[in-house]
């Protein structure tokens, strides 16, 4: 049963607030109107729906705006620069565009959650049903699951591409071409969309909690869905670790290091990958325990992880793999020079 259900309401969903001292008998207007009211949520709050605002903590309200603005602005900038660059669209650039789009979608999810929290602050109990059972929460849930899975998939492909390029650096006939990368990423898009759509079709649900994540594990199918996502993410991490171990071994060859210009790129991507999965590790750990119906953390405390760890890479990624690189700065200043800005800096890269 959905945690907001009541016995008396004709609608299956109900959530309201009552005042403990709201007896109508002997009502003294001047006294009762001016006295603070003690708020009590009904029905009783449970593990999934505590009687609190969407974010719960004041400091999270500040952080989520900081993170979502960085995620949206940073990834939009990367997408704009990479797409408008007059340089040839290479496989790494193509993959980075996909990763930026995934992280941009994560920023949109955070923006939706932050906006609704700001609008309902202090009175979320009056809006809980409309939000969690409406199209807004479903849209936010779709964005975050799609973005998360596409990001993990793209990071895995990026790592495999780096390993393949470095391992077969001297064999040009085995180089990964754009015609190979496009169908690979198309498969990732189809997979990510499918995973994000399933909760809308009844496999788990985005309505379980106020932050619109698929936490419903009441049925065996829903539990299998959550476990599938977690297992696939763990497998992706193992593949990434294996590839970077092989890359590390490969670049120990002095001849290969001298002949291969991709070694520095691989090291930078290693920082990116392990930063991502280090941040995802606590989320995965607590999610696996919850999937087996042995929750080790409350929904209230999980919001701290979901704001501080889950999306933080979406604002860090564009800086780690693009904005801090010389190639990106070249493309950025050349683009700005076309708009009449930063002409002196652009001349340094011509």
From TrEMBL:
GO terms for molecular function: G protein-coupled peptide receptor activity; luteinizing hormone receptor activity. Pfam families: 7tm_1. It comes from the Eukaryota. PANTHER family: GLYCOPROTEIN HORMONE RECEPTOR, LUTROPIN-CHORIOGONADOTROPIC HORMONE RECEPTOR. This is Lutropin-choriogonadotropic hormone receptor. Belongs to the G-protein coupled receptor 1 family. FSH/LSH/TSH subfamily. Receptor for lutropin-choriogonadotropic hormone. The activity of this receptor is mediated by G proteins which activate adenylate cyclase. InterPro entries: GPCR_Rhodpsn, GPCR_Rhodpsn_7TM, Gphrmn_rcpt_fam, LRR_dom_sf, LSH_rcpt. It is a multi-pass membrane protein. Residues 74-321 form the G-protein coupled receptors family 1 profile domain. GO terms for biological process: adenylate cyclase-activating G protein-coupled receptor signaling pathway; hormone-mediated signaling pathway; male gonad development; ovarian follicle development; ovulation cycle process; phospholipase C-activating G protein-coupled receptor signaling pathway. The chain crosses the membrane at residues 62-83, 95-116, 140-160, 181-204, 224-249, 270-292, 304-324. It comes from Eudyptes sclateri. It is found in: Cell membrane.
